[in-house]
Amino acid sequence: MVNIGNEWDRLLADQFQSEYYQDLRRFLKYEYSHYTVYPHMNDIFNALRATDYKDVKVVLLGQDPYHGPGQAHGMCFSVRDGVEPPPSLVNIFKELKSDMGIDPPQSGNLTKWAQNGVLLLNTVLTVRAGQAGSHRNRGWEKLTDRIIQLLNDREKPMVFMLWGRPARQKAELITNPAHLILECAHPSPLSAYNGFFGCRHFSKASAFLKQNGMEMDWRL
Fold it and tell me: What is the pTM of this model?
C-alpha cells in the first residue's frame, strides 16, 4: 500500500484501491524488476510527501521525470544536491534571475520550494532510463488528473503554473475562478525562447498570493 504520510493518503485512498491503479502497480513491478526505472520506487511520491494538500500555494506541473542517471527524485524539475542541473532547470533559474533578481542557487534541489508550498508534480511519475515518455498512458495520468481536480476543488486560492503543451492541456481541469492559471512554453532549450523566457510567472504568482494573504519566497 502507498503511504504518503499526510492528508493525501485520505484524499487519494479510492484511487490507490482502484482497478486502474492495481494495473499500474503490476506494470511498475515488472518494469522495476526488468529495467532501470527512475526515480527510485521509494521516491515516487516525494512531491506529495513534501507538500500536503492544505499547504499548496503553487502547482508547478511537469511532464515525466528526468530519465538520466541520478537525476529524478520525485519532484518535477528538481535534482538532488551534487547533481548538475539539467538544461530545463538552468533555464528556470535564468528566468527567476531575470524576473525576481534571484541569483541561481548552488544546487538544483528544489525541496525548499516544496516545503514553502510549491507542489512539484509531474503528470507521469516514473520513466524507464533513457526513454522519455516510456511510462505514459499506463495510469499515472488518471491519478495526477485527480490530484489536480482535488486542488481545483479547494476554496483557498492557489497558482497553477503550466509549462509546455502536456501541462497546458490540464488547464481544462482547473475551473475554480479562485485560482490563477499561468501558461507558457516549456523551459527546455528547444522551446524556452518561444515564450518561457520573459513569462514572469514567478513575480505574477507572488503578486497573486500576496493579494490573497500569502507569501512566497523563491530563494533556494
Answer: 0.97
